């Protein structure tokens, strides 16, 4: 089952007040995309290390809980980490470990490539967690629209965000009803197949409610004059000095890293080596 409390807590956290929370949504979105793209194309280990240190500083300025943030990161790592686990075994190079099965071994190239991929993944997830923890979902969608997202895609994303928490409330009510009737999916007092069937009924009910809500929402929009030519309202927000300072700090950080890459990579030893998959 979905952890409803975590979803609601994230929305509360994103609405707090801090230097990072008060930045323009476009600034935060562009900054995160810039950091992710730069991290993904980096081949030296010290690049994601410096970016992660910068993101930790941003996390501190945003007054976010390090424990809660890293818990979310750890929950997301398996989605990309599962692929990274195979990297040390599939790349040719100098063999540094051999198992009892001769064809299963770890190479130096594969291990180094796995390390750089994991460091990239951690930086990307940290940036995403900071964005989601400092920007309400509706602000992120509005920022995408201001940056030129296609109209139809923006409409779909906007409606999804608006009704996401409504469906969370629906699920909470269903779970509350089940709990009041002593239903527990982990209970061994009832047959396993029967419990799975009840969960299936719950999922089917959510699909039916989603369909009904979608039809009701569309009818309401049409009755209020909605058509293919309708335009979204986009609020106008002036850029403050803090937004420019934040963007400039990221640009200066990237320039600093590039100077290290070009002139001082050999002095950094292992962290300055250029890792590539062969």
Core attributes:
single chain; 278 residues; mainly alpha; two-stranded antiparallel sheet; 2 strands
Question: Would you mind describing this structure in some detail?
Answer:
This protein is an all-alpha fold. Helices cover 68% and strands 3% of the residues. The chain has ten helices and two strands. The protein has helices at 4-14, 25-40, 46-61, 66-84, 87-90, 108-134, 137-146, 151-180, 192-223, 241-263, and strands at 95-98, 105-107. The protein has a two-stranded antiparallel sheet with strand order 1-2. A hairpin with a 6-residue loop joins β1 (95-98) and β2 (105-107). α3 runs parallel beside α6, α4 runs antiparallel to α6 (108-134) and α7 (137-146) runs antiparallel to α8 (151-180). The mean pLDDT is 84.
């Amino acid at each position: 089952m979905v952890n409803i409390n975590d979803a609601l807590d994230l929305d509360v956290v994103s609405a707090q007040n801090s230097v990072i929370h008060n930045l323009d949504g476009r600034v935060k979105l562009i900054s995160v995309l810039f950091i992710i793209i730069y991290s993904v194309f980096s081949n030296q280990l010290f690049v994601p290390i410096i970016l992660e240190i910068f993101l930790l500083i941003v996390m501190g300025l945003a007054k976010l809980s390090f424990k809660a943030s890293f818990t979310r990161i750890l929950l997301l790592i398996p989605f990309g980490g599962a692929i990274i686990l195979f990297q040390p075994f599939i790349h040719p190079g100098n063999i540094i470990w051999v198992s009892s099965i001769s064809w299963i071994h770890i190479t130096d190239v594969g291990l180094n490539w796995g390390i750089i991929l994991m460091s990239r993944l951690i930086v990307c997830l940290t940036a995403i967690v900071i964005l989601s923890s400092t920007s309400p979902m509706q602000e992120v969608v509005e920022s995408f629209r201001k940056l030129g997202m296609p109209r139809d895609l923006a409409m779909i994303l906007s409606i999804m965000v608006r009704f996401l928490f409504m469906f969370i409330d629906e699920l909470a009510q269903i779970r509350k009803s089940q709990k009041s009737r002593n239903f527990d999916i982990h209970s061994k007092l009832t047959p396993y197949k029967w419990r799975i069937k009840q969960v299936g009924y719950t999922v089917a009910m959510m699909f039916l409610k989603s369909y009904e809500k979608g039809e009701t929402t569309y009818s309401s929009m049409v009755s209020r004059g909605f058509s293919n030519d309708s335009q979204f309202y986009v609020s106008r927000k002036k850029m403050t000095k803090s937004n420019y300072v934040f963007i400039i700090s990221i640009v200066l950080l990237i320039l600093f890293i590039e100077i290290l890459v070009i002139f001082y990579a050999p002095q950094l030893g292992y962290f300055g080596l250029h890792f590539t998959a062969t």
